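Folding follows sequence. Below is one example:
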Amino acid sequence: MSNREQPRNVITLKQALEVAEKHGFALGSFSPRYTPMIAPVLRAAQEANSPLIVQISHKELVRYGITPGEFADEFYGRIRSEGITVPAVLHLDHTKELGTIAEAIDAGFTSVMIDASEHTLENNIRISKEAADYARAKGVSVEAELGMIGTTDFVETDKDEELYTDPLEAERFVRETGVDALAVSCGTAHGVYMVRQPKIDFARLTAIRKLTPVHLVLHGGSGVPAEMMLQAIRLPGGGVSKVNIATDLELSLLQALRREERLTDAECRSLPAEHLEKGRSAVQATVNEKISNFLGSRGRAADYRL
């Protein structure tokens, strides 16, 4: 991990998900996408006494014009200035480049995701193991992906193709890579559901859980009905422990600003104060709703011993 002084409540993904899986709730992995929106995400979690993950992907860093260091500086600055005490993880989402992983770890990220899911199983294992070995030596958790999670907006991933995770391949993948968490493909998609409806293959999730000991991650949480998500979280034997939520936050922001087009981070930071506050209030309300009705994590900060 970096030489940055680490607040006690900023923990690794592995530490965070162990408690969540044990107690039957999931952590929201919220992607604010804009640095000014990190504050309302943290405020919502603090008010709800909920643990959380704040994340950004490699493509989002590029798309919105942010460096890992800038994102981490805002995260840690807000942890201190807002008096945030709930357990929090700083996570690098979908990343294909080991260089970006190294840069994020140096900046103070406590968790990273290597996404080599477009490769063959053998190459995915090789690349993911290399990333896991590197991060583990730095005291950082690693998430990987097996299968292929489709998309509708191409902000986080490149392809709309979906390939469901094979439970037997998942067993081998986890055993040979040593990753801490596994993102599985079982029916959800990144972005907004415009044609097909979201679904979750619960039988597939159950089969994967029976064969793998690591924590399971569901990407594409935006737009999934709450009852469907809660069922996935509460599967017997341990269900999904981490749910990625990005698009819903950005839509809340843009609707509050009465905009349709995305901004860059610089454009967001230069908004008039009253517009910025409107956007922050909308994002905070969305995070609060997800924590309360979608993840089951309200009040769960008390389950952690930091």
In short: The CA atoms of residues 59 and 291 lie 25 Å apart. The longest helix spans residues 273-295. The chain has a mean pLDDT of 90.
